[in-house]
Design goal:
- The protein is 33% helix and 24% strand.
- With 203 residues, it is an alpha/beta fold.
- Helix 1 crosses helix 5 and helix 4 packs across helix 5.
- It is globular and about 55 Å long.
């Protein structure tokens, strides 16, 4: 294999998510892969698939086709037992298209008013689209509970209300980034994916 690094475009348009992905696997990939920001001219990809894996594959394929490079993509969902697995694949749009993080959290807490069973899990499906249409897929999950009110200012999305198992009772919003990445669904999915990518490249 050539010693030149493989360029992979990080497909997400969410700057917070891109920063997390780079933090999680930048060192894991070493010199085998160079992560590239999604060019500004590449349009948003509609996440219209009914599954996390479907959305991740669609994003990876669209960005790869638009750039001529390989791509990394993921889709993540918060699945709450008492809500039948919602918001799930619609987590980023739970309070409607264009909803803010705070809007989604407020809607979630409203839906759980008076609910005692607050068990939930984050699930992430990560996809790497390499040359010749090869795709590698990994999934990560972390179980926990939904807090009654937001706590902490770190992270993004539902982090201030998600208390992961093994997190000493803190929300993701109260954790340092490295602590969160060590147990988060996205951290688990992308570390596993990085291992597969390096194996595919023979690095």
């Amino acid at each position: 294999m050539s010693g030149e690094p493989l360029e992979l475009v990080v497909a997400s348009a969410n700057g917070d998510k891109v920063a997390e992905i780079v933090e999680i696997i930048g060192d894991e990939l070493g010199g085998a892969v160079r992560l590239v920001a999604r060019p500004s001219h590449v349009p948003d990809v509609e996440e219209s698939e009914p599954t996390l894996e479907g959305n991740a594959r669609v994003k990876a394929r669209a960005v790869s086709a638009a750039t001529g490079l390989g791509a990394l993509a993921d889709d993540s969902g918060l699945e709450v037992d008492a809500l039948g697995g919602a918001p799930g694949v619609r987590s980023a749009r739970y309070a409607g298209d264009g909803a803010s993080y705070a809007d989604n959290v407020a809607m979630l807490l409203g839906a759980l008013t008076g609910v005692l069973d607050r068990r939930a899990r984050f699930r992430t499906v990560a996809v790497a689209r390499l040359g010749e249409g090869r795709e590698l897929v990994c999934e990560g999950t972390v179980a926990g509970v939904i807090a009654p009110a937001p706590r902490g200012t770190r992270g993004f999305g539902y982090d201030p209300v998600f208390v992961p198992d093994g997190g000493d009772g803190r929300t993701f919003g109260e954790m340092e980034a490295a602590e969160k990445h060590a147990i988060s669904a996205r951290g688990r999915a992308f570390r596993a994916l990085a291992t597969l990518v390096k194996g595919e490249l023979g690095r």
